[in-house]
Amino acid sequence: MIELASVIMDLRAELDAAISAAEGEALQFELGTIELEATLGVQRTGGTGGKVRFWVVELGADGSLGQTSTHRIKLSLSPTLRTPAGPAKAFVSGQAGSSEE
Hints:
The protein is α+β, with helices and mostly antiparallel strands. It is 19% helix and 39% strand.
């Protein structure tokens, strides 16, 4: 089970690495809207302090979801860099970073 927040945090880290790799590169790409589509498991826990949890359903996952329902969602994320001068456009390079396997 992968929580939705973790997926977004990992995406942010990958984009940050790509932005860092773009510095000094002649060829860069402006980072536009990012569309992320996933099937989410939604589980509500009962009681007075009940919460709703969202997680990305892994392909080929074993086991059953039991009382959990699944929903397909599409998120449109608009990345913006925070700079001392205010929001700025983000650019990524045309080369893969050295952290890729």
